[in-house]
């Protein structure tokens, strides 16, 4: 009986780990208009449940012209939703200033039952955040 319970716990923990592998990885988005304007987003979801976010913008005529913004913290997945959190003491300093505490993104991928030739890029679509410019932004898995 002990072996059965141990085996059951091992299998369930492996399935949880496999599910986080589905979400973990690098996500990018680059928007540009020639050399005039560049906006880039990079999000890395680590398998240990931590994340790092970098936003870079270079706007011609902007003040300031170049801006780098960073955020980090923890993420958890439930169904196809990724919820982000940040600890005020651990995850914030002079460099990491973005507060992801109320941010949620939807994991979008092609349904495995869809046998059509339709191409669906795997992405995270932010739909909730206190960071106003982050809402409705899609970042694509690399």
Topology, please?
Elements: H1 2-23, E1 25-33, E2 37-45, E3 50-59, E4 66-78, E5 81-85, E6 104-108, E7 123-128, E8 138-141
Antiparallel strand pairs: 1-2, 1-8, 2-3, 3-4, 4-5, 5-6, 6-7, 7-8
Could you please describe the fold and organization of this structure?
The protein has 142 residues and is of the alpha+beta class. It has one domain (2-141): Lipocalin. Helix content is 15%, strand content 43%. Strands 1-2-3-4-5-6-7-8 form an eight-stranded antiparallel barrel. The longest helix has 22 residues, at 2-23. The protein is flat and about 60 Å long. It comes from Flavobacterium procerum. This is Copper resistance protein NlpE N-terminal domain-containing protein.
- Averaged pLDDT: 87
SSE class:
alpha+beta
CATH superfamily: NlpE, N-terminal domain
- Looking at how many chains there are and whether they match, the oligomeric state comes to single chain
Task: Report the total helices.
Answer: 1
SSE succession: HEEEEEEEE
- Can you tell me the CATH class? Mainly Beta
Please give the order of strands in the largest beta sheet.
1-2-3-4-5-6-7-8
* Helix-residue proportion: 10-25%
Distance between the termini: 44 Å
In short:
The protein is α+β, with helices and mostly antiparallel strands and 142 residues long. It has one helix at residues 2-23; strands spanning 25-33, 37-45, 50-59, 66-78, 81-85, 104-108, 123-128, 138-141.
